């Protein structure tokens, strides 16, 4: 839950229950027939986990997790009479089904044991709802609503924890996290998504068992990291991620930025600066109709990691000054390596690392007026990332010096104005030479090959330096370049 202001106390369990009644009533309309079908067949059925938790927060969901006393074959037969079914993971007891817009995943009651070298459970079917709830990750996710009568089941006090804004585990946290280390990442994610704190014993267990996270696949870790970053308040989760040592295992570049004072002599380390840049970048995301609809994963990753090259490039200069020369290029390489290790897709990795490499380019603008050529190159190098680069560059200003902040903001306002003016005059969005490869081959009587690419790059440099040329002028300059190229040098 979002943190409450002093004048707005956190809602208690009774108020949360009242909030849930309307949501659960709407939910019952979607799944009550299914509950009756299972009951008629002699089986129990209950909504469980996130949908129940979210109902108390006033949130509805069309994707419902349910648990049942029925075995998978029996579940599948009942669901087939309700809607369209598919195998979600029969080996884990889960069958999926859809009816209209409602999607359900129904899993047989389970008890589990774990191999210490793996987070994959050895599944054994259980015989009670309470036993099934005992194996859930956190108490706020160990609440259920029995169907079809909507009986609320909360054997571990999840509603009280939700009202208090705290995460606790049904079993001991040491056992829970040792069984499934990914639950520690989920704690960070829920801190970011729900604004909750972790209980002291939970945080202690996370710190002690952080190395266990190394057995979890990169894909599963990445999925939790993405959910954390896309949450309303990722900073809260990231701070827990670093403080408990989990980041040392899967994203060590983040805690490595602590205590690395940046070159502007701010009274905070690069780690704190990066979290502030992330907050400010989120504030600059747009609505769905804007150029950078939030939440935007690429922008958020770039904001978080834009200074990861500083620890490796830190140098003590004369006069007590600290420098981080070329940290943007080193940081782009480090980020690419880490994102690849975390199994991010190639497009996301390329976009994030390009933004990191470009994030300092603007600072040359504030030191002196750029030529039109420099503005064109800025736009061309950013390409489709330009709107994100605008936001990353603005977010990177975290100085407490108001005059300096205003000067940087005005300088970037001026750059964006220049870009807009050139874009209107020269179609910067589709910046290209007047002659394409086909025209080059015709004019110079060339076959396809690297020489055509060399000629195209020459024309592109002309376009960037001098603006738009008509085809006749471009052909004349191309022929002159070709003649000079072909003339033997003494």
UniProtKB/TrEMBL annotation:
Q: Which SMART domains match?
A: HDc (SM00471)
CC cofactor = Mg(2+)
Q: Which domain of life is it from?
A: Bacteria
Cite the entry's keywords alphabetically.
Answer: ATP-binding, Magnesium, Metal-binding, Nucleotide-binding, Nucleotidyltransferase, RNA repair, RNA-binding, Transferase, tRNA processing
This chain belongs to which protein, by name?
Answer: CCA tRNA nucleotidyltransferase
Q: What EC class does the entry list?
A: transferase
Alphabetically, the GO molecular function entries are: ATP binding; CCA tRNA nucleotidyltransferase activity; metal ion binding; RNA binding
Keyword Transferase on entry: yes
GO biological process entries: RNA repair; tRNA processing
- This entry's Enzyme Commission designation comes to 2.7.7.72
Endpoints of the signal sequence: none
- Domain HD/PDEase positions: 266-438
Q: Name one Pfam family in it.
A: PolyA_pol
């Amino acid at each position: 839950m979002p943190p409450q202001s002093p004048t707005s106390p956190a809602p208690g369990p009774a108020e949360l229950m009242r909030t849930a009644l309307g949501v659960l009533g709407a939910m019952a309309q979607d799944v009550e027939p299914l509950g009756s079908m299972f009951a008629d067949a002699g089986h129990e059925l209950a909504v469980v986990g996130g949908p129940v938790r979210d109902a108390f927060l006033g949130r509805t969901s069309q994707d419902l997790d349910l648990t049942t006393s029925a075995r998978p074959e029996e579940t599948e037969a009942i669901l087939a009479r309700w809607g369209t079914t598919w195998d979600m993971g029969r080996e884990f007891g889960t069958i999926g089904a859809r009816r209209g817009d409602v999607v359900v995943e129904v899993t047989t009651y389970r008890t589990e044991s774990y191999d210490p070298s793996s987070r994959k459970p050895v599944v054994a079917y259980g015989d009670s709802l309470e036993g099934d709830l005992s194996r859930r990750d956190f108490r706020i996710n160990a609440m259920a609503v029995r169907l079809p009568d909507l009986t609320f089941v909360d054997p571990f006090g999840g509603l009280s924890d939700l009202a208090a804004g705290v995460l606790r585990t049904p079993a001991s946290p040491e056992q829970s996290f040792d069984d499934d280390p990914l639950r520690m990442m989920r704690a960070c994610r829920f801190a970011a998504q729900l604004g909750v704190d972790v209980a002291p014993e939970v945080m202690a267990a996370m710190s002690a068992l952080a190395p266990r996270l190394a057995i979890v696949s990169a894909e599963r870790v990445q999925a939790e990291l993405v959910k954390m970053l896309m949450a309303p308040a990722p900073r809260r989760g990231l701070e827990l991620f670093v403080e408990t040592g989990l980041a040392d295992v899967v994203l060590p570049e983040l805690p490595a930025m602590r205590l690395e004072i940046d070159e502007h002599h701010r009274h905070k380390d690069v780690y704190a600066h990066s979290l502030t840049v992330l907050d400010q970048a989120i504030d600059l995301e747009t609505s769905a109709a804007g150029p950078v609809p939030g939440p935007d994963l690429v922008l958020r990753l770039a904001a978080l990691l834009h200074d990861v090259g500083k620890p490796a490039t830190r140098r003590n200069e004369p006069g007590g000054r600290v420098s981080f020369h070329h940290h943007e290029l080193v940081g782009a390489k480090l980020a690419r390596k880490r994102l690849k290790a975390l199994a991010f897709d190639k497009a996301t990795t390329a976009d994030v690392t390009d933004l990191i490499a470009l994030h300092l380019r603007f600072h040359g603008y504030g030191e002196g007026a750029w030529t039109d050529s420099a503005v064109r190159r800025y736009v061309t190098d950013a390409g489709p990332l330009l709107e994100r680069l605008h936001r990353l560059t603005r977010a990177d200003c975290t100085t407490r010096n108001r005059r300096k902040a205003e000067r940087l903001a005005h300088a970037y306002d001026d750059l964006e104005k220049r870009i807009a003016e050139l874009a209107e005059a020269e179609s910067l969005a589709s910046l290209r030479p007047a002659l394409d490869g086909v025209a080059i081959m015709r004019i110079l009587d060339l076959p396809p090959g690297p020489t055509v690419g060399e000629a195209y790059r020459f024309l592109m440099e002309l376009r960037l330096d001098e603006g738009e040329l008509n085809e006749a002028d471009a052909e004349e300059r191309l022929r002159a370049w070709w003649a000079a190229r072909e003339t033997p040098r003494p």
